């Protein structure tokens, strides 16, 4: 009986070395052994193992939100199809295992499952990962302004030296809790020295503790700039918006020593 694995299957030594390379690294002697194997096969199989390892690593940080039942069912069906048609499928691995020693059979079976699992893990991770914004903040702001229920508040400059020549506004959608700041003439900042921070005063909350609307920076020569609002808490009745100058990273409770712009909505508690 030939000691060579069935065509299309990596041999046991190669599988051992590939798994170790993507998980913990090889010793110089092991690397030399891998280099001496069929370079074409090693390269192709290594890509599969790296893809699987990357997929599993990404999935580990993707969150714990459960998959919808329909998606789970679809992935299960895709798994069956994958195992039925791929050269690394379970059926082929099972057939090969009948002619291989137990340890080699386990390795080949594990290789089949690892390659297929990578496909499924990537599919799951793709569902869990939040979608990337498809439009620029300025376009998103314009879309909010087109809605009849969007709130727009003009921001007026204060007497703070950093406020010289600044004008701006805030648009805020109470329904989606999304909004944008728009500034012209706001001075650039060095993030290592100080940062800007938005505060949202809520008519349902104590004015001493406005909602943190996010820390942001202004690059040099920015001109007009649009910045997304990232409210830390639900805003029930937006009454006013203010931007302060804070230490790097922002403040939990602002001293309000350096308020740059301020605008009120006219809402009352």
Number of strands: 8
- The CATH topology of the largest domain corresponds to Immunoglobulin-like
Radius of gyration: 29 Å
| Percentage of residues in helical conformation | 25-40%
Please identify the top-level CATH class of the largest domain.
Mainly Beta
Shape: elongated
Biggest beta-sheet profile: 8 strands, antiparallel
* Average pLDDT rating: 74
Summarize the structure.
The protein has 269 residues and is α+β, with helices and mostly antiparallel strands. It contains 7 helices and 8 strands; from the N terminus they run H-H-H-H-H-H-H-E-E-E-E-E-E-E-E.
Structural features, described:
It is a single chain. With about 270 residues, the protein is of the alpha+beta class. It folds into 2 domains: about 10-130, no CATH class; about 135-265, Immunoglobulin-like, CATH 2.60.40. It is about 40% helix and about 20% strand. The chain has 7 helices and 8 strands; from the N terminus they run αααααααββββββββ. The chain has an 8-stranded antiparallel sheet, covered by helices on one side. Strand 4 and strand 5 form a beta hairpin. Helix 5 packs antiparallel against helix 6. The N and C termini lie far apart (about 85 Å). The model is unreliable at about 5-10, about 60-65, about 85-95 and about 120-135 (pLDDT under 50).
